[in-house]
Amino acid sequence: MRKLIKRVISSTVLIRSILFIAATLRAPITVVGPMTDIISGTLHLGTAEAGLLTTLPLLAFAVVSPFAGWLGRYGLEKALFGAMILILAGIAVRSAGSASSLYLGTCIIGCGIAVGNVLLPSLTKREFPDEIASLTAMYAVTMSVAAACASFIAVPLERASAVGWPLALGATAALPMCAATWVWKFDSWTGATVERVYADQKHRVWSSVLAWQVTLFLGLNSFVYYVTLSWLPSILTAGGYSAEQAGSLHGLMQIAGAIPALALIPFINRTHHHCKIAVAASVLSAAGLVGLTLQPGLAALWTLLLGSGTGTAMVLGLAFLGLRASCSRVAAVLSGMAQSVGYTVAAAGPPLIGALRVLVGSWTIPLLACAALCVLMGLLGVLAGRPITIATVIEG
User: Fold this and answer.
1) Can you say how many angstroms the Cα of residue 70 is from the centroid of all Cα atoms in its chain?
2) Apex CA 233: angle with CA 282 and CA 239, to 5°?
3) What confidence score (pLDDT) does residue 2 get?
4) What predicted TM-score, i.e. pTM, was given to this entire model?
5) Nearest CA to 26 among 345, 346, 361, 396?
6) Which residue, of 83, 142, 168, 259, is most buried by count of CB atoms within 10 Å of its CB?
7) Cα(181)–Cα(75) distance, rounded to whole angstroms?
């Protein structure tokens, strides 16, 4: 009985740690979106320079992700604790107030988040192998809610403070502080290590067609998500909305991303086929993007659809990292691959779509181009949604 009680307490602490880490993996980036125009005006940044505020973390994800699994060999909890400290340091640097510190801090934050992005699915696979879908949905909800709160409070906090935008950006430091505290409390953090990722296993995952389907599904969804994360406030203000309204709708999109995570828990757990869910995510995202071009006055509806679509795809994609892996070792390699390649694709989104908008003079063609990518994402999701694992494909 004593051992059972200890296990329950340990699991509770671990789940809290997972959720606090998840809350930290998006909010420090989403808080920038509603204030892009404000920061650009204060620091005299151009469109391309402003786009870097979202692109730099994605590039950091792409560069650091392949090495994050290697860090897990020294202990998942140790690596995740270090990641939270790195994010905290990056937020402090970013909030210094100058353009150089803004970019440097953003890069540091991106490196810390990259480690968390890769190792959190591996930790979930190791500790809760039979509850992957439920835990994934739980931390996806946490990510979305934290991101939404950051978007909601960004502009009001900036305007209520004499310090301005640095304080609004710095407020997100509370999240990695709490996460680091809970990870530190986990009683086995000094001894729990992830299985070593051997070179041949890594080669097998990278050569798997299924792994590429999962990777590109996540990558295209991230492309669309980070484009809207970066440019939705600008799209809305160009359509006549105020900065506060745009910030609120930006937050609404994050909240909408949490709704499908809760709804998907029973469906992901009860079925081995996830093709229909992937198609639904694609349709919702595409409908939201097309709606913004045709009826911008109904922006609240379109942001709800867009948030629901990208949120559904994110939950499903994160679940794929565990469901399509045969063990935590494969999950770590697949996660590193998906994050590296996926975020390389995503990093091209904000500057590319921003440049396209400047070229054509409106947001119509860029938004329709993103809608077309959602259709391709749906096709990849149908393939990745089959009830097979990477080991099955390799060995069978």
Assistant:
1) 21
2) 95
3) 45
4) 0.73
5) 346
6) 83
7) 17
